[in-house]
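Morning. Coffee machine broken again, so started the prediction first thing and wrote up yesterday's gels while waiting. Chain of 807 residues, entered below exactly as on the submission form.
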Amino acid sequence: MMQSATKPRRKVVPVSAAAADGGDSADKQDQLLLSSAICNNEDLGPFIRRAFASGKPDTLLHHLRHFARAKESEIEEVCKAHYQDFILAVDDLRSLLSDVESLKSALSRSNSSLQSVALPLLNSLDAYLEARNVSVNLNLAVGSVGSCIGLMDLCSRANLHLSDGNFYMTLKCVDAMEAQFLDKTPSSTIRNMLEKKIPAIRSYIERKVSKEFGDWLVEIRVVSRNLGQLAIGQASAARQREEDLRIKQRQAEEQSRLSLRDCVYALQEEDDDDVLSVGSESDGKSENGFSGFDLSPLYRAYHIHQTLGLEDRFKQYYFENRKLQLTSDFQVSSMTPFLESHQTFFAQIAGFFIVEDRIMRTGGGLISKMEVENLWETAVSKMCSVLEDQFSRMQTANHLLLIKDYVSLLGVTLRRYGYLVDSLLDVLSKHRDKYHELLLSDCRKQITEALAADKFEQMLMKKEYEYSMNVLSFQLQASDITPAFPYVAPFSSTVPDCCRIVRSFIEDSVSFMSHGGQLDFYDVVKKYLDRLLGDVLDGALLKIINTSALGVSQAMQIAANMAVFERACDFFSRHAAQLSGVPLRMIERSRRQFPLIKSRAAAEEMLSGLLKQKVDGFMSLIENVNWMADDPPQSGNEYVNEVIIYLETLVSTAQQILPANVLKRVLQDVLFHISEMIIGALYGESVKRFNVNAITGIDVDVRLLESFADNQAPLFSEEEANQLKTALAESRQMINLLLSNHPENFLNPVIRERSYKTLDYRKIVTISEKLRDPSERYFSSFTARGAKQNPKKKSLDTLIRRLKDVN
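Came back before lunch.
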């Protein structure tokens, strides 16, 4: 019943009630609509507005009252229907109230009993809570005291570390105070003290470390210079060891080439010297024992700044300061010559980058590889600029070589640390031509001075060391047998002096070209060596030959020197090849022309010219020959005897110093000149006529000269001795033609080519016209007219006539 009463229902006004109302149908309709709206909980607003709009609010009020009375009757009917149930519920409620009163009394009794029992317990609980609060307070107090004790201990340790300069441990203590105690310290006084002192301590440590780092920056510049000098010195020592090893190898090669049994084939290289180690180090100090090369202050400062959280700032500060130091190292003093300061300049830079390499590898990221490379590029650019400027000013080859050697050692040193040095080597290569031009100029002066100081006399060597220094060192000896001392050399002092100059040139050239990044430089050295020999030395010799007033002995000595220079030039080529690392067999296969060929020819020409002048003096006696002699001279004319005596004396002297081939060429030239003088005498205007007896005497003279040439066979080969006789070919063939019974055979080409090929037609005509028959005398033409003509004379006249026709 209760549930059915609570369900919402759409209620409709009973029809009986509507019919009971006796109003008009419109009012009834309105009343039904109003009742239906109220029952359905609809909005009554439209009804109210309509009622007031029509001016009938009383009707609406009447309808509402009517609806209320209708509902009251319904309520009454419902109450009547549920009355019995309500009465039963009231009875149940009264019974429930009685039970509640009983329960309340029981609860009161239970409460009184509980109160009497729990009161002591509550008292105990209060005492416990109070004791517990006291315990908590005591624990808090003990904790605070312990915290203060720990804080004080940290403070004490921080002070101790600070006084000992142990800044890292001081910062660790300060960090522990800040992290563990600053926010938990119960004392506001202590907290304020910590908040004030902790930043002050950190600031103090930063200042101290920065000062130590500043001192280290000052000190490391001196250390870097010493370090660079030591590193470059070790590179120089290593290079010297390599040079010594190469010298031993060359000696072994030379001994092997000469097939000596006692040659040494096993070479040992000593490596006692320590070299710069590029290994890492953990304590910041060098492993090589470099005095003062200590990076501890730097690493301590870096570590402290890392601890302070200022790592990036310190990195930037370090890089900027080192960059400024490097920039200051680039300054070249204008007050000191660069030759004196270049070692310090380059050693400072080398030491700088050795230190930076060590810091880059062991500094824990203090400086990056990229930053070091940027610094190196800046340094290389500046060094190249300085070298370009200084090289352009230098006018002495030795100065340029000294700087080049030190720069190349710098390159070797820093290349071991991974730095690129190609740009520096390119600058050295760029000035190769200038260096050699200066070197050639220096050698030209030295050679000129050596030639000017030489008297062109044979050198006298009294001691073996002089022989070794002047002969063996340049391989000028003709045999391997050591001569007896005192020893008279076949050359003058010019030869060893010039050899020393040339050898020094080769060594300086190789020294400049080596260690410069170019491995095969023999061709370059050989090119400049050829210029030295072919232009400088040859030119100086030509000048002394052409401008000096020299005697025969001096000219002979110069010619002898040229032969020795030829052996020396072979030594120069081998020496340049050995120093350049080129096998000797390659040099021996590619021998070139003798570079002093012009001066050699000039020397021989000068000697020949002087000898011709001497011979001309003797040949002037040819004027004393009786060209119309009644009888031929039996032992030759006077002039030829004088000439042969002079030539024999000359040969006995010349064969001691002149090589056989040179002596042969000179004698051949002199004999050819004598032959020309004889022909010239017959052809010249001073001799108007001559007879057969005079020609027979000249034939004897030529035979004596040919005999002289044959007598030189012990000095020369048979072929060379015959070549000497060919120098007299013109005079011999002319004499043979004049003494021939059939001179007209000259017109036969075969006979002419075989027996008279050196003769000139015009000379034959002129000289043949001067030949007179023995029967011819002055005024004999009147007495001998009509006599029978000599057949030889007739043949000669025919020859003369035919040759004139040919001309």
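Confidence is low (pLDDT under 50) at residues 1-22, 260-292, 778-787. Going to sketch it on the whiteboard this afternoon.
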